[in-house]
Amino acid sequence: MAQELQLVVVTPETTVLNETVTSLRFPLYDGMIGVLPGRTPLVGRLGYGELTFRTDKEERRFYIDGGFAQIKGATVSLLTDRAIPAEKISVADAENQLNQARAVVAKTDAEAEQKDRDQVRARRMISMSRS
Amino acid sequence: MAKTRAIIKRLKAVKNIRKITRTMELIATARFKKAMDRASEAAAYTRKLSEIVADLSQADMTLSHPLLQAHETEKNCVLLILTSNRGLCGGYNSGILKQAVQRIREAKDVDQNLSLEVSGKRGLNFLRFQQYEFERSFSHFEDKPRFDEVDVLASRYIELFVNGKIDRLDVAYMQFDSASRQHPTVETLLPIGKLITESTTETTSTRKVEYEFLPSAGEILQELVPTSFKARLFKCFLDAAVSEQIFRRVAMKAATENASEMVGDLSQLYNRARQSQITSELAEIIGGAAALE
Q: Quick check: B214 and A45 CB within 8 A?
């Protein structure tokens, strides 16, 4: 049994990560999921938030912005719109986004949902950049 | 005397132009490589996406999504024309515009409401000159289209389509087949005809994997269809960017070659003119000397 996973993170523009990791954690649509080598194949929808993975040497964190996950054998593929290293998130930007999201007046259900989602997204970014 | 001067002047001008076109060729080559790298990196995303689609379709379920369904009537259509911001790229823009005009005529024949949206100053000027009315225009897409820029456009189209405001979306752009082959085309992006493209069929045939779906396959699909549309639209932009650089490189290469040929011709002409001038001067001197004797 392989003791390692291949983590591939792709955005529409480029492949952000292609690394061998020992374990990882990422947000699915309804909560966090942890993946260790030898997991059952899975296809899932990603949420917004923190992707943490551990390589032999270190632990690294990324912010990922929705998308899809596919686990097949020892390969974990994450398709996401954006993937930003935790150290590169700017608090000011995220706070800006939060304020913008809060300023929106939602008139329909869909708009209210969108507003909620934008707020959650911005808040997660802020909390990530602070921790 | 005057003739040789004029030839020298022209020679210099041609040499200068050759220098410029040569530089432009080199720049286009460098940009093409960069655009090509971007396009091939982006291809990884599309590939993965279609892999997931194939995985989902294994879970034998009916694919139904508002974006997949063709509307009953095709009354309101949108044609997005992707042209370049700059000229000097051979038949790039004219090829695309020819296709676009064909689509416009077609729409007129069957009485569709076709609203035009154009990206790139070249297309914009053409439409203005031909006095076509267009809805929107963009000129901020350079040779490095970014996903979030395309995302804005794509989201708007999705909304319009789902709400029934538009029934069809076509994109006229230069499709990139390979580094030596590109062709102008009008592609229908909405409604999405087929989710699975040919390239994915081989990956699925390798081995069937039983997947766990979180949430259900149907719900993932709800999210997947718009994403796949966005990826497709983005691919159009990337293709256009790569093709533009190829066309420019080819055009500039031809220009440089022509300039070199002209330099050869002109220097020959100059040598002849100089020689005949010398000969006539000599004849004058000899003639003058003979007259004195």
A: yes
